[in-house]
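User: Predict the complex.
Assistant: Input components as received:
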Amino acid sequence: MRVEFTVNGEPRSADVEPRTLLVHFLREQCGLRAANIGCDTTSCGACTVLLDGESVKSCTVLVAQAAGQEVTTAEGLAPPGELHPVQRAFRAEHGLQCGFCTPGMVMASVSLLAENPHPTEQQVREGLEGNLCRCTGYHNIVRAVLTAAASDPAEVTA
Amino acid sequence: MIPASFDYVAADSTSDAIGLLAEHGDDAKVLAGGHSLLPMMKLRLAQPSVLIDIGRVFELAGITATADELIIGATTRHAALASSELVRADAPLLAHAASLVGDPQIRHRGTIGGSLAHADPAADLPMAVVALGGTLTLSGPSGSRQVPADEFFLGYFETALAEDELLTSVRVPRRPGVPWGYQKFVRRANDWAIVGAAAIAGRVALANMGPMPLRARAAEDALAGGASAAEAARLAAEGTSAPEDIHADRAYREHLARVLTERALEHRSSAAHAG
């Protein structure tokens, strides 16, 4: 079946089997490897991308369901060579160790800050409950999101 | 994991979806948010040959109000339910329940109709709608019928929906200012309830204490007879048939039902991850 949608601002026309999952299309057809396949069961959040600005787990979304919508991956957050404020904050606060969960964490954080630009620490922890990290113990990740929230809100939610 | 092959059709209206259901019969499953169905299909627990996507039937989404009821479209997403000012004011138990489903990503996709039609006995929204005394609208080729939530859930993942019927909306009474309580006992973030209890206006519903969301009728009867919350809660596990699994045996679930019912009857609500 043919599906038309936008990926990181570029129109895409996909000829896919109906059962094609969004994460597979992004990784294998678009060459966008930021969204990782971790648990493959809607639990770990490593495959989190934005669908019309909202965080979703792309292992549990069919490409067909994205028709007509805007998909954003970590690669599309900022122009090449630049970093989105949330990415910058993750680097500044060392909000990662192995890095596997990081793209999903960043996308979930962007969505969280779009809905709540000034979250409390507790709200950040709850807002990231759909993303698992096995390295950091979450402290630096939470600190990174709070740091991003303290920067220019217009820039963060852009 | 990838689901087994299927044909995909997108409905563009409620009547189109009902027509497609009639055409494809029990080979078809309705796809809304897909957050119960797609994981089951990936595991081959469900293998429909046709998916009828109602995700773009805009008339099925959204929340409206009559003088005494809220009418919630079947494809209203959990995030919309949790953040709706109308629901938070007039059915706060339901908004709270929606805010505890899964995690933010899941709440961006999952729908109230999908959760109810899936009928997981451990899920939040079936218990909430039973506690609220909600009514479900089921629409088929010969028209619509209204089914009380108490009569909708028939068994383990089993509902009153006929093969050719679509759950189109849910109605719940508007009860601004009426005290309520909601308790969900979980061991991990974004999990289903090991046991849940929801209480409002003399009604008590339990999650994961049987094959479907149950009313704690003995506790309700005691309340109606003037018993205190603590006295009524001691009867909360009467008539239940709790499952046993890796998380809890039956006796432990019955203990939880009593403790959580007492807290719910005291109008206390668990925070996102309170155990």
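Residues 250-265 of chain B form the longest helix (16 residues).
Let me know if you want any component modeled separately.
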